[in-house]
Amino acid sequence: MDFAKFDFDYYERSIKGMYQNYFSKRIGLASGTLILIVLYSLVFRESLWLNGLLVLILAGIIFYLSSQRQKFPEIYQQFLAENLPEAKIERIQESEYSFDVMRGNEVALRINKKGMRNFPAQNKQYTLMVGFEKTFFAKQPLEILYYDVLDLTYEESYRLKRNGYSNVPRFLRRFSWGNIKSSIGNGFSFILGNLFLLFILFRLLRYLLVIFRQFM
What we know:
- By secondary structure, the chain is α/β, with parallel strands linked by helices.
- The chain has one domain (about 5-215).
- The protein is about 55% helix and about 15% strand.
């Protein structure tokens, strides 16, 4: 069971790329939003106090994401330490949009299927799963764990859907309560974060509409 050190050394570069890309996308989105707000404020000279506050918040978000992006070596070593001297083998249950880590009969955490990768371990019995926690707000989203593919089980409702027993069209399942609930995480952070995101989206749409009307 001492194969973890070999696997972590071998796949470090690939996992580092996944981790940095995860944060780079969010930094790019926040930076683009910040630039648009600044340009709008310089050109139209309205809502300057509000826009200034939004710029400060977005700058703080960018700084936080950038600092988290640099913490990969520390976080990676923490995961390695958890799997030494023996690899920790998790029990995985697959649901429609996530792989759920089971502890007893409870779901300990959910790993988003989107962006998840499986790496073959040196010990052929196990697979190294690398992905990101399925929640809107995670202090540390990266998850690295070992599991046995032959022990993979299916969540009951997902198993029925795989077999065609579902009255909900596939394109609507992403908006089902079960999928939304699994992504919420901390309810208070979910509410505050989404109010802020909705407000930012509203302002951006308004600014884009004004700019469009101005130059058309």
